What we know:
The chain has 282 residues and is α+β, with helices and mostly antiparallel strands. It has helices at residues 2-10, 31-38, 49-59, 76-84, 107-113, 119-131, 177-195, 197-201, and strands at residues 97-98, 137-138, 203-209, 213-220, 223-230, 237-242, 250-253, 259-261, 266-271, 275-281. The protein folds into 2 domains: 21-195, Glycosidases (TIM Barrel, Alpha-Beta Barrel), CATH 3.20.20; 204-281, Sandwich (Immunoglobulin-like). It has a 6-stranded antiparallel beta sheet with strand order 3-4-5-10-7-8. The longest helix has 19 residues, at 177-195.
Amino acid sequence: xxxxxKERKNSGKEWGTLGYMVGExxxxxGDIINNEGYSQNGLRSCFDFPMRYSLVQxxxxxxxxGESHGMNQPVSKLNNTFNSxxxxxxxxxxxxMFMSNHDLVRFGDLIQRAKKNEYWERHKLAISFLTAYxxxxxxxxxxxxxxxxxxFVNEKDLGYYDDHVSRTSGRINNFNExxxxxxxxxxxxxxxxxxxxxxxxxxxKNIYAEKYLYADLKIDGNNKIIYVMNVSNxxxxxxxxxxxxxxxxxxxxxxxxxxxxxxxxxxxxxxxPMKAKFFLIN
Length: 282
């Protein structure tokens, strides 16, 4: 494969490797991933279980109920996980972010387990977070249309256990309107991610993270993006922050192309409930 890639590169044709190795070390705290996966010049990429658990604890619930940190967590937990776990990995490490996998409960079923509403909005928020994540991401089949196991909420429902229930049959057609809407949303965000290297390769600087409102500044060279997420299901949240060290004239909403004027380098935007936004800095 490497020889063929080299030949194609030298001849001016499209070339590249077809995949890479990613480790699956089931560890919610990150120490085992770091010590056994990344250390001693080991793997370059492992699934980001600590961040995945933080994400579902904010937007739905972790698999195990009854733990105080397992659900209803503030969005500041996401920033805390970046700072306390991911930033301690070796510089060469490229964690791989995900929502669901073959050994965990599907994100849709976790929303139901948490007895949350806003099923489709929570999927969009989770996918938006993956979109803004520096490094590789994995979208488990079905998450792009909000798949779930009908009748399954808690472990042993229908005879299923949490470590295998997500291994469902995928679908490629016969989607309803809500599923199609989520598919199109996912397609659009993956296009935005592809076209903006700050999202997949950028340095992250958190500019706000409290209970409901989360905002990151992502920078890769001249490409600069502000990602904002409001997880409140009741009220809009205002982001009013002065940004230092870079010049900002305006923002372009990457989904609507709306241009927002910025005065004195101060971001002043309002995000509707259960919404995420991506703004290109001009």
